[in-house]
């Protein structure tokens, strides 16, 4: 599909050239990608995660009150790459998402990595989240700094304004310090299942209020620079015995590969016994099954 502007967010098809998607993302801070996932992939993920969703407690205690408020009335399934092989192999390493990471994150690191992969099923009655920038979790990185994160929310059911579709604030990635959103600047990322809103970590956004009647299920998937600490501990979320059964590309994105910046005048991070852990996984490192 040709780029379409709706409420100042461009919409493109997943078959669009990566450069075109990147241009829209850089212009608005967010872009909606239609049909990123096929119906079969969406169905497979929903089937694989259903037992975990059923077991999730929407009133679970989170690590602090702020997080508790953020995810109220929500079934939360963390470490998705370790619970859905389809997600790990078809979504986490989707060629378009990685191409965007190459352009947005690649210039600032030797290797980018998965930051977070969570399923969120927001229930009817869930209130609006407060607006925020995802990159704020690294607020100790001195300004000015490059983009620290590429994020997305991927719809596993149809997203509408009624069921709390993610609200984004176009152009907010370029706002000066101290400029904050107004409610009338928000645009709902309404989209069918299998589509995604992709946005920069510097862009303001929030989950909308859920005034519908059915749960709204989606995935928050984000990537960050290879030299930053990730929000989720992906080595525990997807331990070696699970990661060892995934393709090497998945292992690398999960952070099992060394961040080697020697050719850029830096050092290396994440080694084990002076070796690259991803090579150990490929060799059947104890605790892993080795790659299929």
CATH class of the largest domain reads: Mainly Beta
Rough outline: globular
Main sheet specs = 8 strands, mixed
**What's the CATH topology name of the largest domain?**
Jelly Rolls
Unreliable sequence segments: none
User: What is the CATH superfamily of the largest domain?
Assistant: q2cbj1_9rhob like domain
Distance between the termini: 36 Å
State the order of secondary-structure elements, H for helix, E for strand: EEHEHHEHHEEEEEEEEHHHEEH
Instruction: Specify the number of helices.
Output: 9
Strand coverage percent? 15-25%
Helix content: 25-40%
The counted number of beta strands is 14
Number of domains: 2
Radius of gyration: 19 Å
CATH architecture of the largest domain: Sandwich
Strand order of the largest sheet: 1-2-3-10-7-12-5-4
Structural features, described:
Helices cover 25% and strands 22% of the residues. It is built from 9 helices and 14 strands. The strands form 3 sheets. Strands 1-2-3-10-7-12-5-4 form an 8-stranded mixed beta sheet. A 4-stranded antiparallel beta sheet has the order 6-11-8-9, with no helix packed on it. A two-stranded antiparallel sheet has the order 13-14. Strand 13 (259-260) and strand 14 form a beta hairpin. The two termini are 36 Å apart.
């Amino acid at each position: 599909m040709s780029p379409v502007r709706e409420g100042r967010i461009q919409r493109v098809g997943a078959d669009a050239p990566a450069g075109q998607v990147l241009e829209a993302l850089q212009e608005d801070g967010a872009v909606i990608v239609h049909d990123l996932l096929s119906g079969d992939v969406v169905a497979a993920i929903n089937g694989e995660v259903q037992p975990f969703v059923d077991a999730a407690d929407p009133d679970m205690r989170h690590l602090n009150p702020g997080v508790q408020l953020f995810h109220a009335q929500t079934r939360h399934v963390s470490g998705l790459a370790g619970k859905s092989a389809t997600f790990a192999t078809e979504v986490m390493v989707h060629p378009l998402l990685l191409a965007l990471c190459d352009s947005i994150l690649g210039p600032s690191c030797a290797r980018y990595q998965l930051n977070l992969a969570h399923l969120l099923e927001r229930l009817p009655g869930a209130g609006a989240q407060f607006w925020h920038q995802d990159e704020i979790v690294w607020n100790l990185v001195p300004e000015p700094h490059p983009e620290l994160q590429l994020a997305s929310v991927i719809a596993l059911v149809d997203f509408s304004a009624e069921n709390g579709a993610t609200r984004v604030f176009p152009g907010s990635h370029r706002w000066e310090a101290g400029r904050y959103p107004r409610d009338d600047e928000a645009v709902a990322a309404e989209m069918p299942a299998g589509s995604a809103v992709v946005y920069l970590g510097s862009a303001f956004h929030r989950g909308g209020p859920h005034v519908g009647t059915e749960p709204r299920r989606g995935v928050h998937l984000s990537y960050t620079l290879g030299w930053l600490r990730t929000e989720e501990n992906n080595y525990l979320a997807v331990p070696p015995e699970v990661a060892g059964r995934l393709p090497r590309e998945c292992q690398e994105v999960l952070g099992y590969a060394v961040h080697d910046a020697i050719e850029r005048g830096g050092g290396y991070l994440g080694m084990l016994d002076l070796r690259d852990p991803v090579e150990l996984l490929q060799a059947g490192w104890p605790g892993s099954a080795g790659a299929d």
